[in-house]
Amino acid sequence: MRAVDIIDKKKHGEELSKAEIEFLITGYVKGEIPDYQMSAFLMACCFQKLSAQETTHLTDVMRVSGDVMDFSDKISGYTVDKHSTGGVGDKTTLVLGPLVAANGVVVAKMSGRGLGHTGGTLDKLESIDGLKIELEEQDFIDIANKVGVAVCGQTGNVVPADKKLYALRDVTATVEDVALIAASIMSKKLALSNQGLVLDVKTGKGAFMKDLDASIELAQRMVEIGTLMDRDVIGLVTDMDIPLGKTIGNALEVQEALETLQGNGPKDLVDLCTELGGRLLVLANKADSLEEGKSKILKSIDDGSGLKKLEEMVEAQGGSLESLHNLKISKNVFELKSSKSGWVQSMDALSMGIAAMKLGAGRETKEADVDLEVGLKLFKKVGDKVSEGEALLNIYYSDTSKLEEVKKQLLESYTLSDIEVEQPKIILAEVLKDKIVKY
Amino acid sequence: MRAVDIIDKKKHGEELSKAEIEFLITGYVKGEIPDYQMSAFLMACCFQKLSAQETTHLTDVMRVSGDVMDFSDKISGYTVDKHSTGGVGDKTTLVLGPLVAANGVVVAKMSGRGLGHTGGTLDKLESIDGLKIELEEQDFIDIANKVGVAVCGQTGNVVPADKKLYALRDVTATVEDVALIAASIMSKKLALSNQGLVLDVKTGKGAFMKDLDASIELAQRMVEIGTLMDRDVIGLVTDMDIPLGKTIGNALEVQEALETLQGNGPKDLVDLCTELGGRLLVLANKADSLEEGKSKILKSIDDGSGLKKLEEMVEAQGGSLESLHNLKISKNVFELKSSKSGWVQSMDALSMGIAAMKLGAGRETKEADVDLEVGLKLFKKVGDKVSEGEALLNIYYSDTSKLEEVKKQLLESYTLSDIEVEQPKIILAEVLKDKIVKY
């Protein structure tokens, strides 16, 4: 087999075998196939597209390029995971994980850090004093078994093929391809032996995918891969035109997650967790219908069992409950007031995410530090009525140097209307292995 | 400017500026832009295609990436060049150059060596004892001025961008693209300041381009580039389904060129030289019409002035006239006889070129040596009548190890018909800057 022949085959639109994809990817990871052949191949893939089967082969070959965590006989019961493609104010994992665990389904999840305008669960968890996000495999499994939910960073050498490929795609204009994106995400998700997976594909201004149809396609491709690899996968395409919930920033989002588990969550976040969680319970055979699953999730908020799971997880991972309930949030607060009256017609999630990043809540580069105490608390979201001089949001800041810029940016993020505006839907589409439903 | 943005722009089908193409190519030659970005760019070009203007920019940027030979004020009069895309038995330069020079038009030509089934003029010239093909620039110019025709190898560092790009294209499945091929050829041709250029684009089984329409497109792209760069360029698409002339092999082909200039040439070779030469004379204002140009070329055969120019060139380049007229050809000859009667319906130029290469007349790899004395002399070509037992061709060989294989291959190259077959046309299409004529 020669790399050039495989590239040529793909260039001419022919379908590659698993052996061919394996030859390329494993050779590339080993350094036997050079960057220049791989980048030509990736560009050919962008034009000729990979079939579902090819994408699945690629995913599987990438998946096994490094450490694979098979806990199928180490964690009892059906285990699940959730993946979000990243957005602004997305604290879903912190709410959903405990609620699902409270219903007897094990959530064994590896999360990531934030980058750019999107936050990351690991950063958020670090707002809790003492909480360890770097867990040894055995500790991770033990906590998942004992508590029912464990969240940690990627341990060991998980999917090195993706790291190497992503770095190359980033500099060769080959990032934007739905099959390559799907393979990248799924290879990492499926490196853990979770049987059930819900995908939360964000769409809109604050998401990587701005376009609904492209987001549905991405969900489709990922569901296809998961299905071909014998996992139970459901994709929800959800709104990220506006931030999720009412907070952006690390400690602020943990606080909101906590309040949500205490029954005081914002409607969009509660709805999203209910829709995702309800489906996970159905996958895990803990509910006979989505309706039953959703009501079980809501019940776990009402009866405090979800909150209890979060507390158990925090403690099991070495975190302080005292800290969880008294999160450090900056004392420097600026109340941003509306300069006119009306109904909030739109909010620019991307711009708000970037504003929060400028405050220090996010990182511009992978190496940057994050200020856990800063961020935004939103009082007004799309559909809300606002009077002139009424507070739109609070800015929690440490450093004043960018405050004026951030204020201006946030004010411009809001568009007000003179007439009443409907509250937006959170779930826009559902992608199952055999159908797509748009809402 | 960032390479990744330029790649992305091309990936999305936008037209690149000269500055962008220059940034990529000069950066690549300097080693500032890595192979992996260039290969992704090249693959994007294969899909999105380069416009005529982009291809011209690319050609020009490549052209000036190394030494450029501007002899516009060093050689008096209109200077011309001919380029062939390579074929089997193609000794055109050795006939055409002297005939054109005999009509007062200077031919200043850099040639190449053969590779695979195609021969190269430099190898052929080396059949003549003493003839130097590595000329200093000043000697090349002096000979062109004095004799009117000079043929040498690439001197110095001509178009290093093409060498580097070609090596990369070869291993990344990006060779096959008409704009990239056109830019590669034209950058080297236009690195010399010849004002007139005829392109002999070979098409058919023995050519790199097997397909007539693809060959016409290549000719078109090259004529466009030349025209946009203020040169006078004409493209002829000519038959290479069967070998050109009646010999394949180095000394054998020089002998055939000599015989052609003595008035004993095969019809296809004479026709091709007349058509190419007639056009060059029109470009150089030495003839008012193609008809006049062609008859002048034929006259230079009849009156021996072409032969005289070849002899003058050979002497000026240090070659022996004694050797030219007594070329060393292997004494080991095998006469291959037809096993049946009929008319020759087809000959496989590729297979015959490979057979000659196996005898040693060509090189399988760039590094291989060539045996100048071996090759084939064809007695029967398409349209000729053959009787059972009559000789199809002579095989001149040195080494007997591959002789049986070659015999078999050559016999299989011929297809005979029971009914009379027409002689094939040599000129299939003509590409001018404003029209295409198919013959």
Give the secondary structure arrangement, pairings included.
The structure is a homodimer of 439-residue chains.
Chain A: H1 3-11, H2 18-30, H3 35-48, H4 52-63, E1 79-84, H5 92-101, E2 106-111, H6 121-125, H7 137-147, E3 149-153, H8 160-171, H9 178-189, E4 196-203, H10 212-228, E5 232-239, E6 247-248, H11 250-261, H12 267-283, H13 290-302, H14 305-316, H15 321-325, E7 333-337, E8 342-347, H16 349-359, E9 375-378, E10 385-386, E11 391-396, H17 403-413, E12 414-417, E13 427-431, E14 436-438
Parallel strand pairs in A: 1-2, 1-4, 2-3, 4-5
Antiparallel strand pairs in A: 5-13, 6-9, 7-11, 8-10, 8-12, 9-11, 13-14
Helix pairs in contact in A: 1-3, 2-4, 4-9, 4-10, 5-11, 5-12, 5-14, 9-10, 12-13, 16-17
Summarize the structure.
2 copies of one chain form a homodimer. Chain A has 439 residues and is of the alpha/beta class.
Describe the structure.
Two copies of one chain form a homodimer. The model of chain A has no long low-confidence stretch (mean pLDDT 96). Chain A is globular, with a radius of gyration of 22 Å. In chain A, the strands form three sheets. A seven-stranded mixed beta sheet of chain A has the order 3-2-1-4-5-13-14, with helices on both faces. In chain A, strand 4, helix 10 and strand 5 form a beta-alpha-beta unit. The first copy, chain A, folds into three domains: 3-48, Transferase, Pyrimidine Nucleoside Phosphorylase, Chain C (Transferase, Pyrimidine Nucleoside Phosphorylase, Chain A, domain 3); 79-324 and 428-438, Pyrimidine Nucleoside Phosphorylase, Chain A, domain 2, CATH 3.40.1030.10; 333-417, Alpha-Beta Complex (Aldehyde Oxidoreductase, domain 3). Chain A is built from 17 helices and 14 strands. Chain A has helices spanning 3-11, 18-30, 35-48, 52-63, 92-101, 121-125, 137-147, 160-171, 178-189, 212-228, 250-261, 267-283, 290-302, 305-316, 321-325, 349-359, 403-413; strands spanning 79-84, 106-111, 149-153, 196-203, 232-239, 247-248, 333-337, 342-347, 375-378, 385-386, 391-396, 414-417, 427-431, 436-438. Chain A is of the alpha/beta class and 439 residues long. The A-B interface holds A 3-5, 7-8, 11, 34-40, 42-44, 46-47, 168, 170-174 and B 3-5, 7-8, 11, 34-40, 42-44, 46-47, 168, 170-174.
